[in-house]
Specification:
With 141 residues, the chain is α+β, with helices and mostly antiparallel strands. It is built from three helices and five strands. The chain is globular, with a radius of gyration of 15 Å. One of its GO terms (cellular component) is Golgi apparatus.
Length: 141
């Protein structure tokens, strides 16, 4: 069973610009993925405004019975969130690594237009490798 179920990247406007499933269970169609990204963007923004803590950056972890949702927001407002198995450790470092891959392979790509869907083969290859390496590290292999 994979530790990471899926990855979503949302632009600062709340639009889904990247989505990838890593498990066969619980796959969603495109419309459901768009709804989930929009809902998460809204919840994240509301949590920033309603937080009693000054300087709150929004929800970073949502724990449920069957999954955990880990979120990382970059300084530009782009959100990266991973749906993972409950209790999965080191998701914060994985999300930061995914952000590094995003900056290296997407933002430095001269053909990529900001805020548009990500279609970059090098990003996909390195992202899959990072998820696999993380999965092997969690399994202790």
């Amino acid at each position: 069973m994979p530790a990471v179920y899926s990855l979503y990247i949302i632009n600062k406007s709340g639009g889904l610009i990247y989505h990838k499933d890593y498990g066969s269970a619980g796959r969603m169609d495109t419309n459901d993925s768009l709804r989930l990204a929009s809902l998460w963007h809204s919840m994240h923004a509301i949590s920033q405004q309603l937080s009693p803590v000054a300087g709150c950056t929004g929800i970073e972890l949502l724990e449920a019975d069957t999954f955990d949702l880990h979120c990382f927001q970059s300084l530009t407002g782009t959100k990266f969130f991973v749906v993972a198995a409950p209790g999965t450790q080191n998701m914060e470092s994985l999300l930061k690594h995914i952000y590094e891959l995003y900056t290296d392979y997407v933002l430095k790509n001269p053909f990529y237009e900001m805020e548009m869907p990500i279609r970059c083969e090098l990003f996909d290859i390195n992202l899959t490798q990072a998820i696999q390496n993380d999965r092997f590290a969690l399994l202790g292999r």
